[in-house]
Amino acid sequence: MLKNLKHIFHAIAIAISIPTVLPASAQVKHVILISIDGFHPDMYLDKSWPTPNLRSLMKQGTYADYCLSVFPAYTHPSHAAMETGALPARSGIAFNQPKNSKGEWNWHYNTIKAPTIWEAITKNHMTTAAIMWPNVVDGPITYTFSCQQQTANWGASCAPTATGGFPAVTNG
């Protein structure tokens, strides 16, 4: 499993470094990482599923037809692994909620204890954006739109945050 995580992190790192390796005429302008919680690859590989836009993105870019999740396989530890290439013991994100939580979740960037892809991109003076991505609130991301879940009661307590020019969105 660790080997697969390292491969994923290395693939992302290579994708980020492509603009500095390729000639100016062939530079990659954008890298888009899409994560859909609990979304099995068959849902975009099998043409009987109604996902034409995802299949179109797949054909134009790179995609995964198999991944191993971290343990435990929760949203926040899995996304932290994608952001860092680290297992939960090193990233510091082992569950969706921090230890001794009173209902708050790991939405804030400072909960991650390992270097992230966001830091590497920012260090290379590139623009980043994250939409509804866990563990990014107050992080080094140029444009962020996140929903901070204040309690375990998801719908009633979602407090959207926006930085870098995204319009503010409110519940209701």
Question: How would you explain this protein's 3D organization?
Answer:
The protein has 172 residues and is α+β, with helices and mostly antiparallel strands. The protein has a domain at 72-163. Helices cover 34% and strands 9% of the residues. The protein is built from seven helices and three strands. It has a three-stranded mixed sheet. It is globular and about 45 Å long. The relative contact order is 0.12. Residues 7-22 and 168-172 have low confidence and may be disordered.
Q: Give the helix/strand class.
A: alpha+beta
* Coarse morphology: globular
Element order: H for helix, E for strand: HHHHHHEEHE
Q: What's the gyration radius in Å?
A: 17 Å
**How would you state the average pLDDT, rounded?**
75
Low-confidence residue ranges? 7-22, 168-172
Give the strand tally: 3
- Count of separate DSSP helical elements: 7
How many angstroms separate the termini? 42 Å
Order of strands across the main sheet: 1-2-3
Helix content: 25-40%
Largest sheet: 3 strands, mixed
Task: Kindly estimate the percentage of residues that lie in beta strands according to DSSP.
Answer: 5-15%
Feature tags:
single chain, 172 residues, alpha+beta, 34% helix
Can you describe this structure in just a few lines?
Helix content is 34%, strand content 9%. The protein is built from 7 helices and 3 strands, in the order ααααααββαβ.
Q: Topology of this protein?
A:
Blueprint lengths: L1 H20 L20 H4 L6 H9 L14 H10 L3 H4 L25 H7 L5 E3 L11 E7 L4 H4 E6 L9
Parallel strand pairs: 1-2
Antiparallel strand pairs: 2-3
